[in-house]
């Protein structure tokens, strides 16, 4: 988001490019309303998180709602073995003729202990990230999915955003390499100081 002049944010639609779904809501923001993390590192992709302040609020209804932030305790809980859901409109394969998805795609994944990511991305693997191995079924994020949500359903039934799609292997999305997500719980101080919201302990 750093350097962007304006943003268009949509909600309530699985096909936002069509612009035809009556449930879709659209709001705007400018570059002045963007807050990239002050310590974002383009070389090691550390602190890969940012916030955008909307000029007008979304109206919550049956199709648009807020996602819950993680608790501070999730910053130290590795959540190994926990099922999680990724989503995005990125490329659907490594085929050079393949385009981005026209409908929001979902995939179920399981959080790893980080060994797979450390072995592949030794110099850019940190505790502020979450690791997913894709070798088993090759489900993965791809180019165009960056910044998308990684969510889990907690014991109380509420969906919580624990991660943001950060990066994968340059060898391709279908090659079975692990993918890495920014751990949102590691940046609750940044979110609180920027927004004034208070996170759960």
From TrEMBL:
Recorded superkingdom: Eukaryota
InterPro entries, A to Z: CLIP_Serine_Protease (IPR051333), Peptidase_S1_PA (IPR009003), Peptidase_S1_PA_chymotrypsin (IPR043504), Peptidase_S1A (IPR001314), Trypsin_dom (IPR001254), TRYPSIN_SER (IPR033116)
Pfam families: Trypsin
Keyword Disulfide bond: yes
Gene Ontology molecular function terms on file: serine-type endopeptidase activity
Domain Peptidase S1 residues, every copy: 1-196
GO terms classed as biological process: proteolysis
Keyword Aminoacyl-tRNA synthetase applies: no
Keywords for the protein's UniProt record, in alphabetical order: Disulfide bond
Record's protein name: Chymotrypsin BII
Gene: CTRB2_2
């Amino acid at each position: 988001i750093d350097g962007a002049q304006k943003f268009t944010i949509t909600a309530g639609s699985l096909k936002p490019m069509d612009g035809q779904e009556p449930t879709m809501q659209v709001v705007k923001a400018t570059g002045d309303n963007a807050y990239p993390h002050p310590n974002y590192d383009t070389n090691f992709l550390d602190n890969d998180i940012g916030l955008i302040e909307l000029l007008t609020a979304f109206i919550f209804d049956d199709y648009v709602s807020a996602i819950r932030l993680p608790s501070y305790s999730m910053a130290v809980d590795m959540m190994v073995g926990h099922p999680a859901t990724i989503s995005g409109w990125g490329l659907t394969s490594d085929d050079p003729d393949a385009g981005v998805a026209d409908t929001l795609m979902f995939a179920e994944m399981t959080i790893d202990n980080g060994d797979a990511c450390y072995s592949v991305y030794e110099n850019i693997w940190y505790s502020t990230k979450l690791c997913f191995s894709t070798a088993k079924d090759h489900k993965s994020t791809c180019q165009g999915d960056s910044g998308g949500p990684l969510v889990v359903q907690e014991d109380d039934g509420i969906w919580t955003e624990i991660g943001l799609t950060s990066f994968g292997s340059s060898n391709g999305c279908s090659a079975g390499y692990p993918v890495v997500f920014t751990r949102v719980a590691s940046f609750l101080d940044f979110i609180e100081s920027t927004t004034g919201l208070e996170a759960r302990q």
